[in-house]
Amino acid sequence: MGSLVNPTLPTIHFSGKNLEPGSTAWMSTSKDVVRALEDYGCFAATYSKFSLGMHKAIFRCSEELFDLPTNVKVQNTSDTPSHGYVGQEPIIPLYEGLGIENATTREGVKKFTNLLWPSGNDRFCETALEYSRLVAELDQVVMRMVSESYGIESSYESLLGATSYLLRIIKYRKPEKGENGLGIVPHTDKSFMTIIHQCQVNGLEIKTKDGDWITVDPSPSSFIVMAGDAWMDKWKNRTFNSQGHN
């Protein structure tokens, strides 16, 4: 791993008029988005529709999820690698994660909820669904801005029609004495785009084009928007970077 450096990611605010397609504010924000993705492969984002109450609610639900017995959590399986339960792995002993496929649909979230709570858990279901839909809205705004900036609006429509959303909920336990503190090995994501929202723990590091690592300072009101490997495959002639992170 390279050295940790002080530079921070650019922060882009999504609110008001810059959420109105075609407006001057929209066009200006689109330029900021493209510049950040070209320079860093990612950026920090604040989204006016996302409240502190939702931040607290989704992490309360996350705690409830991880409090379930391991023999219950392992029932979260998927045919797609890393979409189901991952935990208790010797190579990444601090890591534990579960995945909700089709997380913007009530059917997808209820399937997950009923699997882990056979008697139901309406609060978890409604919170996870609302959270997923809010994050999906932000994802779609970014995709549209990039597509319009490059004059390929048709790509946005085709991408939107082919997109399904995975909500992955992750926890890193505290390392024991003498244990390596690395939560997960450095990697890029196979998805088109990844949007990360952290609790107030400095757990995310992002690799720059120069090989250094930026430590991301989390905020309850912000997300990290990252281009994934599928984004690189889609627009190989652009200068986006799929950045490694851990």
TrEMBL record:
Pfam families attached to this UniProt entry: 2OG-FeII_Oxy (PF03171), DIOX_N (PF14226)
GO biological process: coumarin biosynthetic process; response to molecule of fungal origin
SUPFAM superfamilies: Clavaminate synthase-like
GO molecular function: 2-oxoglutarate-dependent dioxygenase activity; metal ion binding
Entry superkingdom: Eukaryota
Fe2OG dioxygenase domain boundaries: 163-246
InterPro entries per record: DIOX_N (IPR026992), IPNS-like_FE2OG_OXY (IPR044861), IPNS-like_sf (IPR027443), Iron_ascorbate_oxido_reductase (IPR050231), Oxoglu/Fe-dep_dioxygenase_dom (IPR005123)
Keywords: Dioxygenase, Iron, Metal-binding, Oxidoreductase
PROSITE patterns from the UniProt entry: FE2OG_OXY (PS51471)
Signal peptide: none
UniProt similarity note: Belongs to the iron/ascorbate-dependent oxidoreductase family.
Name this protein carries in UniProt: Probable 2-oxoglutarate-dependent dioxygenase AOP1 isoform X2
Organism: Sesamum indicum
Chain's gene name: LOC105157562
